[in-house]
């Protein structure tokens, strides 16, 4: 029975914390809607609620990525292989099969 009571206490604190948060949001919304100033002063520069209400989100463009630098080096040159002077022909040479066979 005691394990049942101990598991119920954290739930109660969570519910109370949730209700407190909801109450604070409702209170803040009500204060913002009911907020007024006496007189005809429209600047309200000394009122933190008015200053915060008129602050807009600054739209910032994404920075242009810097292109990666490529390391360029001279490629080593190789001497061309010497071409055979005489082409040898094999007497028993047969043609290899075609690469694509339509009859297969």
Keywords:
104 residues; single chain; DUF2607 family protein; elongated; mainly alpha
How many strands, which pairing sense, and closed or not: the largest β-sheet? none
SSE order: HH
The percent range for helix content is: 25-40%
* Beta content: under 5%
- The mean pLDDT is 76
- Form type: elongated
Low-confidence stretches: none
Our Rg estimate from Cα atoms comes to 42 Å
Distance between the termini: 81 Å
Beta strands, count: 0
Q: How many alpha or pi helices? A: 2
Class by helix and strand content? mainly alpha
Protein name: DUF2607 family protein
Organism: Granulicella aggregans
Question: What is the topology?
Answer:
Elements (H helix, E strand, L loop, with lengths): L1 H32 L14 H6 L51
What does this protein structure show overall?
This is DUF2607 family protein. It comes from Granulicella aggregans. The protein is elongated and about 110 Å long. It is built from 2 helices and no strands. With 104 residues, it is mainly α. The two termini are 81 Å apart. It has a domain at 2-35 and 44-53. It is 37% helix and 0% strand. 0% of the residues are buried.
């Amino acid at each position: 029975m005691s394990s049942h009571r101990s598991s119920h206490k954290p739930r109660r604190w969570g519910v109370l914390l949730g209700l407190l948060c909801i109450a604070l949001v409702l209170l803040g919304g009500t204060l913002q809607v009911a907020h007024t100033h006496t007189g005809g002063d429209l600047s309200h520069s000394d009122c933190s609620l008015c200053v915060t209400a008129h602050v807009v989100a600054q739209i910032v463009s994404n920075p242009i990525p810097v292109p990666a630098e490529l390391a360029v080096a001279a490629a080593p040159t190789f001497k061309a292989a010497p071409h055979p002077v005489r082409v040898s022909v094999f007497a028993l040479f047969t043609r290899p099969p075609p690469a694509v066979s339509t009859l297969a």
